[in-house]
Input
Amino acid sequence: MRYIAFLYGIACYLLFLASFLGAIAFVGDLVPAIPVSVDRGPEAPLGIALLIDAVLLTLFAVQHSVITRPGDLRPLPARSAPHHARLPRRGHCLATL
Output
C-alpha cells in the first residue's frame, strides 16, 4: 500500500507539473508549433464563449465543493497512514485540469 500511494503521489505531481507548464505555454504563447494560445486561435461567437466559460467555472466550483464534503474528508481505513487520505483529493483536483 505504501509504494502504491507513493507512486500515485508521484503520478499526481507529474500530471500537475505537465498541466501547469502547459498552462504557462498557453498563456505566454511560448510554443509556436501549437496553433492555439490566448492570443491565437479560432474566435467563437460571444454566446458560445460565455457558455464554455460558464461550464468550465461550474466544473471547477463543483469539484472544489465535492472534495470538501465530510464524507470525502474522512480518512481512509485505519490500515493506511493519515497522509494517504489526501491522495484521492489530489487526483480529483488534477482530473479537472
Observations:
- The chain is about 65% helix and 0% strand.
